[in-house]
């Protein structure tokens, strides 16, 4: 008998066909109130789940007694209670690697846009306010040759370092839970303590996962260590930062600008004080959002799920303790 899969993310026709070939699929098209009710109704028969951007807590998972595997269409796994899943022997998989380069591109887009004030000045042109040659009041700041500070030297951090070092001649400094000699050799990068990095980097870039240890890592005390020239970039998770402290630092001119793809609450409210600030570039969590990469992530998730449901170890198993 085919296994029962509940999808809470739309897939391309090719991937839908692949899934239909092997499983019985229930599709929940969106995660609005109606969609969530559909999901709840489908959970009791679900053996596999595939989707993203939904907090799957114990209350929801308790509705799914037959669940064997969850394939998340994301690299981040902060939406899942991993201990609980492991306890129930539910295999959780994610989609690393395929999104690394695209997410690093997003990071660099924010670095360039914030430093060169691309959004603010493009809006000036669009608003018909380009009346004369621009002067120092509109000048930006250079990116090439400046110090790139990366917090969290994982795959995405490395891809950012590669762009900065080889493309823009930037000295690279980094902070992570342990020094990485191979990275240091490849990008001529230097390890720093967190306070040292915050004091020395021209661009402070967050690329680390959200965990109990990283939640609220950057707050008032950390912004106070940055300089008025510092540009702050976040492509990881909003909750790694105390957003109120970030707003305060921007308002007080403690830092020059911020490029943000992630926020404490998403979607970001139109009322957010961040959107009142000209020196903030805010994008709607587009880190991996290209046609090619989202398809590759979905394909990876489908293969992870099919493997798990067939009793094989998925290529990107997150909770290896659940595998026996
Ligand atoms: C999206 C992401 O949030 O992979 C991640 O961790 O943050 C993103 O790529 C989304 O999960 C894509 O489906």
UniProtKB/TrEMBL annotation:
InterPro entries: D-isomer_2-hydroxyacid_DH, D-isomer_2_OHA_DH_cat_dom, D-isomer_DH_CS1, D-isomer_DH_NAD-bd, NAD(P)-bd_dom_sf. Keywords: NAD, Oxidoreductase. Residues 108-287 form the D-isomer specific 2-hydroxyacid dehydrogenase NAD-binding domain. Signal peptide: none annotated. Residues 5-319 form the D-isomer specific 2-hydroxyacid dehydrogenase catalytic domain. The keyword NAD applies. Gene3D superfamilies: NAD(P)-binding Rossmann-like Domain. PROSITE patterns: D_2_HYDROXYACID_DH_1. Belongs to the D-isomer specific 2-hydroxyacid dehydrogenase family. This is D-glycerate dehydrogenase.
């Amino acid at each position: 008998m085919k296994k029962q899969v509940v999808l809470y993310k739309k897939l391309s026709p090719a991937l839908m066909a692949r899934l239909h070939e092997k499983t019985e699929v229930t599709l929940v098209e969106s995660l609005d109130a109606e969609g969530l009710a559909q999901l709840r109704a489908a959970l009791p028969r679900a053996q596999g789940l595939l989707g993203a951007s939904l907090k799957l807590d114990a209350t929801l998972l308790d509705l799914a007694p037959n669940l064997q595997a969850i394939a998340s269409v994301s690299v981040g796994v902060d939406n899942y209670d991993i201990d609980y899943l492991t306890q129930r022997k539910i295999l959780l998989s994610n989609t690393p690697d395929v999104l690394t380069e695209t997410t690093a591109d997003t990071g660099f887009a924010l670095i360039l846009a914030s430093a060169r004030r691309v959004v603010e000045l493009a809006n000036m042109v669009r608003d018909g306010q380009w009346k004369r040659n621009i002067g120092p009041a509109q000048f930006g700041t250079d990116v090439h040759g400046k110090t790139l500070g990366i917090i969290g030297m994982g795959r995405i951090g490395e891809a950012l370092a590669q762009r900065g070092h080889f493309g823009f001649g930037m000295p690279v400094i980094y902070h992570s839970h342990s020094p990485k000699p191979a990275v240091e050799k490849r990008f001529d990068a230097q390890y720093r303590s967190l306070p040292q990095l915050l004091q020395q980097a021209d661009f402070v870039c967050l690329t680390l996962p959200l965990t109990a240890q990283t939640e609220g890592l950057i707050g008032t005390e950390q912004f106070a260590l940055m300089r008025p020239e510092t540009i702050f970039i976040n492509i990881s998770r909003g909750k790694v930062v105390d957003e109120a402290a970030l707003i305060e630092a921007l308002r007080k001119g403690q830092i020059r600008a911020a490029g943000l793809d992630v926020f404490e609450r998403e979607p970001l409210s139109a009322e957010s004080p961040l959107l009142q600030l000209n020196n903030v570039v805010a994008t709607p969590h587009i880190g991996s959002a290209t046609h090619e990469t989202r398809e590759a992530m979905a394909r990876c998730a489908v293969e992870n799920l099919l493997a798990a449901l067939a009793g094989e170890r998925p290529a990107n198993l997150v909770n290896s303790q659940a595998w026996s």
